[in-house]
Amino acid sequence: MARILGYTSPARGHLFPLTPILDELSRRGHQISLRTLSSQVPMMRGRGFDTRPIAGRVEAIEHDDSRAGNPQAALGRAVRRFLDRAEHDGPDLRQAIADERPDALLVDINSWGGLAAAEAWGGPWAAFCPYPIFLRSKDVPPFGPGLAPARGPLGRLRDRMLRPIVLGTIERGMMPALNDARSQMGLSPLARVDDLFFRPPLVIYMTAEPFEYPRSDWPESIVMVGPCEWDPPAEPPRWLNEITGPIVLVTTSSEFQDDGRLVQAALEGLAQETFTIVATLPAGDPARFIAPANAHVERFIPHAAVLDRAVCAVTHAGMGATQKALARGVPVCAVPFGRDQREVARRVEVAGAGTRLPAGRLSPRRLRLKVLEALTMTAGAKRVADGFAAAGGPRAAADTFETRLIASKTSTARQMHLEGRE
Asked: Which residues have a Cβ under 8 Å from the Cβ of 137 and sit 6 or more positions away?
């Protein structure tokens, strides 16, 4: 059995989908060490993982993209925060490797310095990616704006013309600092941002078709396993069991992005409907809102308990919350505010699994109409749920990790022994 070291960025939305994979690897007898957010260390230790916090300097760098004036500027701010963290998460993971002496690594794709440290280490390692992948393809539009996939010659021309503009802007702001982090690890520079996804021997991609766009040029190293959803253990509130009718879940980001107005629009726009609204604000203040008679506003309750009875989920288009709903066949009304959320919202729409309402057009009336439309799209949500189930989830992720990395390492060690090179 192997000693596996996991490393996450300071985001619960990245730790939580990793958790069931680590659980599965642990059940198979592997020893799990983990570096993650300080607030989550006790809970992860309770799962049997040898867990310590990531460096405080990494966790102290918080997102400020809500201050940006437009979605493109917000994406740029998010990229800069990842680059700021890379100065520290690379050395942090390198020290963790020295302390733990692992046999294999599983590293958050958003820990850009950590990816460099893993590559420089030279042992078996994989990255995990819980959001739409930033990777050029002839079959998909350029990442970021949330464009619909091209149709016909004009659509393909649009993509060819926009790709260097959209991706070039991001790369010019990203590559120098990213390559500085790689240089500190003794690695050669990357030519394009796409190369970030080609360096890991394995990328565990936490989605699946038909939610992800089909591509004819997927690299062999990227394996789609579905969402790998997980909620922290918690007792649902008593009032949830008292609700007898249909429920609409409203979610906001677990990392602050000033998306509380989504809850306000839902409370106002859906107040006269027959279903019950359950809204969560993990990075906000529920006391700011006056809930109508058919609504409950909480900081956090387990989404799974609500989604098992929901007829629709109104999400901030975060990948985790959106896929968690779709995995149960619950249609989604996606309202993107920034980051990768325009890409997630467009995928909801293209898959026929719900509706999309840009945050700039958010109003109580428009949200109500989009929710009512989403309620008619259960067939599309069911197709996505079937695709997720077929991808295999945590078991498929663990199978791939063992087959491609741990078995390969064992085979190499056995060959070295036979050749007398140990």
From this structure: 215, 217
* pLDDT of 74: 65
Any idea where the domains of the chain sit in the sequence?
3-230+392-418, 238-387
Domain formed by 238-387, architecture: 3-Layer(aba) Sandwich (3.40)
Phi/psi at 292 (nearest 5 deg)?
-70, 175
Phi, psi of 362 (to 5 degrees): -65, 130
Distance CA(260)–CA(379), nearest Å, equals: 30
Express each pLDDT in 173-204 by its tens digit: 788 888 998 999 999 999 888 898 999 999 99
> Residue 48 has what DSSP assignment?
T
317 within 8 A of 336, measured Cβ to Cβ: yes
Q: What is the pLDDT of residues 85-98, one digit of tens each?
A: 999 999 999 999 99
Q: What whole-number distance in Å separates Cα of residue 294 and Cα of residue 358?
A: 25
Q: Is the peptide bond before 20 cis (omega within 30 degrees of 0)?
A: no
Distance CA 36, CA 96 (A): 11
Domains 3-230+392-418 and 238-387 share a fold: yes
pTM of this prediction?
A: 0.91
Which two structure tokens, joined as six digits, stand for 33? Answer: 């060490």
* Per-residue pLDDT at 29: 96
CATH tag, 3-230+392-418: 3.40.50.2000
Q: How far apart are alpha carbons 32 and 5 in whole angstroms?
A: 6
> Per residue in 203-222, is it b (16+ CB within 10 Å) or e — as a string?
bbbbbbbbbbbeeeebeebb
The HSE-up count of residue 96 (CA atoms within 13 Å, CB side) is 31
Q: List the beta bridge partners of residue 106.
A: 6, 126
Phi, psi dihedral angles at 276 (to 5 degrees): -95, 135
Residue 223 near residue 202 (C-beta atoms within 8 A)? yes
Asked whether 11 and 255 are in contact (CB, 8 A), the reply is yes
Q: So what's the pLDDT on residue 64?
A: 66
pLDDT tens, residue by residue, 258-269: 778 899 999 999
Cα–Cα distance for residue pair 414/412, rounded to 1 Å: 5
Sheet with 276-280, side-by-side order of all strands: 295-298, 276-280, 247-251, 310-315, 332-334, 354-356
